[in-house]
Amino acid sequence: MGSHFSERVLVFHNCDDQKLEITYPCTWQYTVIGLDRDAIRLAVADVVGGREYSLAASHSSRTGKYCSLHLSLTVETEAHRVGLFHALKSHPAIRIVM
Predict the structure, then answer these.
(1) What pLDDT shows up at residue 73?
(2) Full-prediction pTM beyond 0.85?
(3) CB 81 within 8 A of CB 16
(4) 3-state DSSP call for residue 38?
(5) Can you tell me the distance from the alpha carbon of 96 to that of 98, in angstroms, rounded to the nearest whole number?
(6) Which residues of the chain have pLDDT under 70?
(7) What is the Cα–Cα distance from 50 to 32, expressed in whole angstroms?
(8) φ and ψ at 76, to 5 degrees?
(9) Phi, psi at residue 74, to the nearest 5°?
(10) C-alpha angle 48/52/11, rounded to 5°?
(11) Distance between CA atoms of residues 32 and 40, nearest Å
């Protein structure tokens, strides 16, 4: 029988100073914003690599200059979640990650 490993991390929410407990692994969602939907899709594929994920179109700005997509995938640890955030944020095709 294989062992199941989970990591618990306590995070403080900045706005209301509320405590949120995250148990890893878990499904996490990012919103990624950039100028070109196809370029964002390629950037996500590049950063995520061979991991399974879903990517869905979200909104476009009023002027149509910016578009956003919702990325959903399983993160294994706090370090993995934060690392993906920084890798997405630093990709040239992506302007903002939330």
Answers:
(1) 98
(2) no
(3) no
(4) helix
(5) 7
(6) 1-19
(7) 19
(8) -85, -35
(9) -85, 130
(10) 70
(11) 8
